[in-house]
Amino acid sequence: MPVVNPMDLSGRHVLVTGASSGIGRATAVLLSRLGARVTLTGRDADRLQQTVEIMAGDGHRAAPFDLGAIDEIPAWLRDCAQVGGPLSGLAHCAGVQVSKPIRNADAAFMSDMFRINIASGLALARAFRQRGSAVEGAGIVFVASASAFVGQAGNVVYCATKGAVVSAARALAVELARDRIRVNCVCPALVDTEMADRFRSTMSEAQFEEYLQHYPMGIGRPEDVANAIAFLIADTARWMTGTSLLLDGGLLAG
Ligand SMILES: NC(=O)c1ccc[n+]([C@@H]2O[C@H](COP(=O)([O-])OP(=O)(O)OC[C@H]3O[C@@H](n4cnc5c(N)ncnc54)[C@H](OP(=O)(O)O)[C@@H]3O)[C@@H](O)[C@H]2O)c1
């Protein structure tokens, strides 16, 4: 019997948001190595092209788009599915993290954070279930955060947005099962990306060293998250929906 690789994505079309940087870039690269044809998005066209250049195979397409334009998402995603074919997966990696104590969190700040971190994902799910956008059994993966489960002073609004992502994935899993669409999320703790660099710059060296003590296995690499996302999109997770996969180097176990 030939060995069948359940993570083989040959011939499948996957949309990756946040593909110009960090976790999204690592995800686009891994999915391409698994055989997928990837549509990549983010706002920065040059950085999206840099990702395309390190991907395997061909047929990939950079489609720059600002996910803050919530009401434009369904038409934009329909175009992506028309150009590249119905989607087998969506890895929604785009997100923003800005540290701010609650005393300084005004309505505009809250609205911006919720718009990118949760409303964009809901609109993408709405778009994904449109007729012709996705194939049967397709998988959506949202990148939430371990911040959904652990409180952090100065990071309240971000934590709230990521808690909302976990809840949204669970409810969408139930609602979209009738469309044969699976919805899961991954919840990484600190991963070595530009976002982590910005987070780190809000602390002194001593504070950061103290923070690292909470990570028995150290902080993560973007590829650690990409592996889990690929697993949830591929046939390996054919029977998984509504799950939140914690990726935290042991942070919450301690
Ligand atoms: N790094 C961590 O420690 C960590 C931990 C837990 C969860 N996460 C989550 O993982 C995801 C990826 O984070 P990362 O560390 O890879 O961050 P990153 O390196 O800062 O990348 C963020 C990505 O989001 C995109 N993005 C931001 N605003 C956008 C908008 N309005 N429209 C379209 N794209 C937008 C950016 O693209 P453009 O700049 O090109 O628009 C970029 O590709 C985020 O959801 C984050 O909350 C990260």
TrEMBL record:
GO molecular function, one term: oxidoreductase activity
InterPro entries referenced in this protein's UniProt entry, alphabetically: KR_dom (IPR057326), NAD(P)-bd_dom_sf (IPR036291), SDR_DHRS6-like (IPR051122), SDR_fam (IPR002347)
Residue ranges of coiled coil: none
Database matches in CDD domains: SDR_c (cd05233)
Keyword line: Oxidoreductase
Pfam family membership, one: adh_short_C2
Ketoreductase domain span: 12-193
Similarity comment: family membership: Belongs to the short-chain dehydrogenases/reductases (SDR) family.
Protein name, per record: Oxidoreductase
Species, as recorded: Aliidongia dinghuensis
